[in-house]
Amino acid sequence: MALLPLIATAFALADDVPKPFGLARRVPWNAEKLSGSPEPPLPYTVEKTFTKHVWKSPLYIADEPGTNNLWVALAGSDAKNPSRVVRIPDDPDSDRSETVLELPNTLIYSVCFHPDYRNNGYVYVFTNGPREDPERFNRVTRYTVARSGARLIEPKSAELIIEWKSAGHDGGDMTFGRDQFFYITTGDGTSDSDGWNSGQTLDDLLGAVLRIDVDHRDGARPYAIPRDNPFLTTPGARPEIWAYGLRNPWRMCTDPRTGHIWVGNNGQDLWESAHLIGRGENYGWSVFEGSHPFYLERKRGPTPLVPPTIEHSHAEFRSLTGGVVYVGSKFPDLDGAHIYGDYASGRIWAMNHDGRKVLKHREIADTSLQIASFRVDQRGELLITDHGGGLYRLIPAPTRALPPFPTLLSQTGLFRSTRTWQPDPALIPYSVNAPGWADGAIAERFLAVPGELKVGFDSARAWDFPDGTVLTQTLSLERMPGDPTSRLRVETRLLIRQQGEWAGYSYRWNDEQTDAALVPRGGADARLAVGTGQDWRFPSRAECMGCHGRAAEYVLGVTGAQLNRDQDYQGIVDNQLRALDHIGFFTSALGKPPQALETLTDPRDRSLDLERRARAYL
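The structure assignment produced for this chain is given below.
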């Protein structure tokens, strides 16, 4: 019995012994070798404008004819927060604004002014709602703006022009042609694979560009059908249809000089497109996605398929936003070009087209914007709506000499030796609780932050990293499953922060496993000598940033909840947050022990609680 107090004392002393830290000290990282870009500089960039306003989810901007004002459509966040249209002076130094329209439980996609707006005050508003109802409608409503006084929308002036049901792709834009007729875009009405099979049918208004005459009435309808619309005599066809076979025609414009009408079209699996719209043309959806087969067994519409005027694979674009034709004076090299871009990657392109053939097609800017629309102001100068919260203008990119970007992984400074797989001592290994699936590959992850710079910690969301930060992920496959000694390094991916923006690059390992070469901008495909052969996609730059975009806060795996777990630091097992906190990695101390902070579970671990696994997966 006398031994019991001694044993208890021994256990107490053992508990008081400090647990060793996995990281003893911080090794400074030199990021000089990983700067610049492997691509030649683009001629333009963007600059935020109208910064004295607070913009929440802007979707559209239009100049008000006969005034020096702009109208901006703002998407309400949910059914309880109304969408609004605000009017502001076209003066970046002004903070004045007024709400001209507010619609609860409704999403406002766009506004369009009548060609004779200065006299009649007509403005058309494209809406979708009720927002949280399973059965929603797209509506085009005409309002009248008073011609005197404060020139606000007259409350009782609303007149429904046209409507159709939609449970997904809505289209969402309007324009007047030089023929004075009114054009409207409609989507296929569903969110995946043309579930209503509406793309090739003419008996509904879906998946099309409509063309109506809003200056005349036809019986009970508040519009008339132009006599040269293409399907007036087609049995069962809606006479409003001008062109069809579109998935989600996102943004439309009229070239003020030629009258050409451009429409951007969101693709699904692999392709994005834009079209010069022609009478009665069929753009193929959902038999084709762009010019590529999709559901070849589906019945086609009555007119031949017309390929896209512009087409980008998902290696370049992920969600094409149709643009405008530039007729301003600031940028003569863009005169007459259709300027369009990508919501997901922020890239901006320009195409000059004479109506028969392409004259010039080039990328002009690479931004971090979520491009929701392009418009022009009263002077014809370009305005860009960033759904993430701002209005931007195009500006010439500054000229600066950039150092050569490393084309081999061994040149990046990330490794003492790629041949013997020795990371630089400044690289900190890390692992995540809920790893993504990478075609069965095993991932090894490291992060490096320059010098003594620190990181802003967040327990749930992405951390605030300084410029020069590099996150690496090396993916390996086992030639013989279950045998770690048979691993074949396939790819090392880098996510680099420079000048406030993130960029993704991929390096492909050679057969000798001694080094890895930078993958071209458009990515690459390979068949690997693993098992009976495995197909592998090396992502393009755009594919990298399609996942690591603003909506995902760029950095996917490095959050407090993901890193709140143990890591083996060369034989010392320690909680990663505790280890990083110990070396002064964060701008401020954690404040709480890791066990008191949020954590995720591995969704694939069947021994864990099912609800927590499901939440981590989502």
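Interim note for the steering committee: The longest helix spans residues 3-16. The chain has a mean pLDDT of 91.
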